[in-house]
Design brief:
Blueprint (H helix, E strand, L loop, with lengths): L1 E5 L7 H12 L4 E6 L12 H11 L2 H18 L6 H9 L4 H20 L2 E2 L16 H12 L5 E4 L2 E3 L5 E3 L5 H11 L4 E6 L20 E3 H9 L10 H7 L3 E5 L8 E4 L11 E14 L9 H11 L6 E4 L3 E7 L7 H12 L3 E14 L9 H10 L7 E4 L5 E7 L3 H13 L2
Parallel strand pairs: 1-2, 1-7, 2-4, 3-4, 7-9, 8-10
Antiparallel strand pairs: 5-6, 9-10, 11-13, 11-14, 12-13, 14-16, 15-16
Length: about 425
């Protein structure tokens, strides 16, 4: 049995929905489908979710009209009979919070697609649950999904949202339909969780930086998690855990090229013969450099510095230590509004010999389970950037041995990414 999730770009208009329906019907094992709200039909278009947010902020019925017109156009072009006037009226006239309004796109999309397929519609408002702290209640959610779906042959569910204990609609973060699909797959112990999008799969690098990047045919859950954390985007990172725990393979497919192999995500990778599976990176980091003579003899010194970061809600990404110094890599955005206060508190708390906050750092990660116990990966990485005269500001190797991360100046980021890719994938 297959659980399939289709993203907003796959469902942007009636023509694309027909195409999606053909994909669903082409394999009888696809029994449960999770859908997003309609996305952009063309580059200058506006996503339904963004239009709903606009209406929620303004409260002007005129801002809801384009939403209603777009869904009615889809219904008409699909040739189905579905009266959503009561739903439109409730959405327009009731005082709802932003989460409820954002969920309406998925709800209406699922109603339409269920009608077009002739399948059951199951509202995730009554299947996916959050606790008082707005954290997913996974146990209750999966038990309810099994109860609601267990006796159905086919069903369409809206992604992206569930309900709080008081019954109020609550959404995941953007891209949360991936999580909804993963929860359905996990609850039903699906054979495969398919995630249909507008790209061929997970690429070896960002194609905007490395035009020659290729699709990764197979990747492990751990490798995917590392790449997602380092900036690679295709699948919502929180969508990995439910199917990872259940050991359900994920298949990322291109709606517009369903014949392509896509990317398979499993617990092990027996396809790749390369030590590196992919490369990812992000800009926008700062380094907090702290020096203190004989720091290695001062018990709790680093802990006290970290408590200052905690006080200002600043999380660090990487740490490098020496006998008399240590450096913390933090997102630059997290320092907004507290930079001077944080520096002053660190000075007052641990009395360093010197402290500097240096902006403009970019992080590049090479990820691959093939590098475990394989010598020379770090050397190849240093050599690749050294040959183009890019200075490495820091290096960090994760304890999992799935990744090696280097820090370079932002102005060298793209050049360094291409050099690293050349070394590991083209040489």
């Amino acid at each position: 049995m297959i659980v399939a999730k289709f993203g907003g770009s796959s469902l942007a208009d009636a023509q694309r929905i027909r195409h999606v329906a053909d994909i669903i019907r082409s394999n009888p094992e696809r029994r449960f489908v999770v859908v997003s709200a309609p996305g952009k039909r063309f580059p200058e278009d506006t996503k339904i979710t963004d239009q709903l947010y606009r209406f929620q902020e303004s409260g002007d019925p005129k801002d809801f009209l384009p939403i209603e017109e777009r869904f009615q156009e889809i219904i008409q072009e699909l040739g189905i009979t579905l009266d959503l006037s009561a739903e439109y009226s409730e959405m327009k006239n009731e005082a709802h919070n932003a989460d409820y309004m954002a969920s309406c796109g998925e709800y209406l999309s699922a109603r339409i697609i269920a009608e077009y397929l002739g399948w059951s519609f199951v509202d995730t408002e009554f299947c996916i649950f959050f606790d008082e702290q707005e954290q997913l209640d996974k146990e209750r959610t999966e038990a309810t999904l099994r109860e609601q779906l267990g006796n159905l042959e086919h069903a369409v569910l809206p992604g992206y949202y569930g309900a709080m204990p008081d019954g109020q609609v609550h959404t995941f973060s953007r891209g949360g339909s991936d999580i909804s699909g993963a929860l359905v797959a996990s609850a039903l112990n699906a054979d495969v969780y398919e995630n249909w999008t507008d790209v061929d799969g997970i690429l070896t690098a960002d194609p905007r930086i490395v035009p020659t990047a290729t699709t990764i045919p197979a990747i492990t859950y751990g490798e995917l998690e590392e790449l997602a954390y380092q900036g690679a985007t295709v699948l919502h990172e929180d969508a990995v855990r439910p199917v990872w725990d259940a050991q359900i393979p994920i298949h990322i497919c291109n709606t517009f090229h369903p014949e392509n192999v896509g990317t398979w995500i499993r617990s092990d990778n027996t396809i790749s013969d390369r030590p590196i599976t992919g490369i990812a990176g992000r800009k926008g980091f700062s380094v907090i450099q702290i020096e203190k003579e004989k720091m290695n003899t001062l018990v709790g010194y680093v802990r006290k510095a970290l408590s200052c970061l905690e006080h200002h809600h600043v999380a660090f990404e990487h740490m490098a230590t020496g006998l008399g110094s240590f450096s913390l890599v933090v997102p630059t955005a997290s320092l907004e509004g507290c930079r001077e206060y944080l520096e002053a508190e660190i000075r007052q708390t641990i009395h360093p010999d010197s402290i500097q906050i240096i902006d403009g750092l970019a992080m590049i990660a090479v990820v691959g389970c093939g590098m475990i116990d394989k010598p020379g990966i770090a050397g190849m990485l240093f050599s690749a950037v050294g040959e183009i005269n890019v200075n490495v500001r820091m290096i960090d190797m994760g304890s999992s041995q799935l990744n090696v991360v280097i820090g370079v100046q932002e102005e060298s980021f793209e050049t360094a990414m291409r050099a690293v890719y050349q070394r590991f994938f083209l040489s």
